[in-house]
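Write out structure tokens for Iron complex transport system permease protein.
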Amino acid sequence: MTLPFVAIRPGRSFSLRYRVRTLLVVATLAVLAFAVAVVSLGTGDVVLSPGEVLAALVGQGSTIAELVVLDLRLPRVLLALAIGAALGLSGAIFQALTRNPLGSPDIIGFTTGAFTGVLVVTVFIGNAYFLVAAGALVGCLATTLTVYLLAYRRGVQGFRLIIVGIAISAILTSINQWFIIKVDLQAAYAATIWGQGSLNGLDWTQVPPVLGLLALLVTLLAIGGPRLQLLEMGDEIATGLGVQVERARLTYLALGVALIAVATAAAGPIAFVALASPQLARRLTGSAGIALTPAAAMGALLLIVSDWVAQHVFAPIQLPVGVVTVTVGGAYFAWMLARAARTQ
């Protein structure tokens, strides 16, 4: 049975058309992410019930509950949800542009380039937070420009972009290892932890810039309309439907890079969320192509769950969240291979 569509028209010049199944999947993922967020806010040295957490969120809790929830734990939870959504969106953009499930920023090498930028800043300038964030942004953008220029041959084809990206990623990985060997032990330890992807130590100072930048990027994506879905159909079809292919591709490439750069600057290169989120969301929605909203919701859920595991499963040791996402990603790859073997 084909599910009906729901048309959403917030303005005359902008409209969205969603299948009911897609809306149900997004709503379910959002509810699950909120539920995990409430559990995460109530878990730790000071244990709070879900009721106490909700009361603290609306300003009706005890002094201790509001201090723990609002001042100490809420920034990390908000950033986990926002960064997870950004990673899911970025992965969806690149997989749609390359028309390949491996077209993810962590596979293509953009997050590796961000790590290189951080190491360069750490070695030659310092390791203050804003310096590290700036290094991540510059490294990610420089890597993207390099991959794009090397992959450009009268346009950029998805498979060529992936191959060039994997090659650049391998080169940058070697450079990163050389930097880690050269820096002093304390700086090498800090860089290695950051390179795993970690939400440890994030507070309210990171929340406004991250949420503000992500809100701007999501708005720009919404303004772009359905051109990404048209690009996923192929250059010839997109051109026939009036899309300026290279211009649109470059625009979405810039937005995808900006999303991954913001996420990486805040928390380091968190692996596999951008890779797995669009594909898992696609399977749940049953859509023919990559959809942005389900990918964002799935990314938020994956990262908030992974962060809870990183904080509490091995307590009192707190793992970098990237260690958990790598484990989940390995299981996801094993499942994909087993499924592919059964279908052959």
